[in-house]
Amino acid sequence: MNTNEKGKLLVISGPSGAGKSTVIGRLMEMRDDVCFSVSVTTRPPRPGEVEGKDYFFVTPQHFQELADGGYLLENAEYVGNRYGTPRGYVEQRRLEGKSVILDIEVQGAGQIQKNCPDAVSVFILPPSGAELERRLRHRNTDSDEKIRERLLQAKRECAEAGKYGYIVVNDDPEAAAGQLDAILTAEKCRAADRLNLVTEVLIS
Ligand code: 5GP
Predict the structure, then answer these.
(1) Taking Cα atoms as reference points, which of 135, 132, 122, 139 lies closest to residue 176?
(2) 138 and 149 Cβ atoms separated by less than 8 Å
(3) What is the CA(78)–ligand 1 centre distance, in A?
(4) What is the pTM of this model?
(5) Distance 149 CA to ligand 1 centre (A)
(6) If you measure from the C-alpha of residue 196 to the centroid of ligand 1, how many angstroms do you get, rounded to a whole number?
(7) Domain of 195: which CATH number?
(8) Is the distance from the beta carbon of residue 76 to the nearest atom of ligand 1 less than 6 Å?
């Protein structure tokens, strides 16, 4: 049966140190019906980041124009920089049947939950505070004070996890990606989205 279904909007949040990008990368290898939405940001590129792959890097003025023109599905400020999701890409890919993954912070996720009630939201949680601290220390050479600041920010973000539809604990990226895969599959089988299939069976 050709289901001809619209793709899902999969919102993924989690603090730095939760391992979001690894889990998302793994999910994208596992499924060919998903794609990743590249965000627009005013943050300058970090070494190794590629325009159009990691982000679309824009000036604050250009960002404001995109926001004013309604070109962003959501946007938020995070640690002094602005981030937003291009609306056109998301809508186009969903119409083509692809589920679109957004890797966004909690304010933006809140806007999506409000404006797109059919969105699926998942919070990626590190397995423990101690493991979160270990990952944050491991990944950068910052001073102790900076690391403490990052840890506090990460914990503040984890405190919002209850606002999401699902929580996936990232002990092991392979297992976490497997859980995301299962969530997406289950969401695609929701009866409310498949009543047209029932009609098709009844009339054929
Ligand atoms: P980073 O600057 O480290 O790449 O990202 C910082 C935060 O911004 C991360 O939590 C990331 O999920 C979030 N982010 C990235 N793109 C977007 C976006 O388009 N919208 C929102 N609201 N957050 C985003």
Answers:
(1) 122
(2) no
(3) 7
(4) 0.95
(5) 18
(6) 36
(7) 3.40.50.300
(8) yes
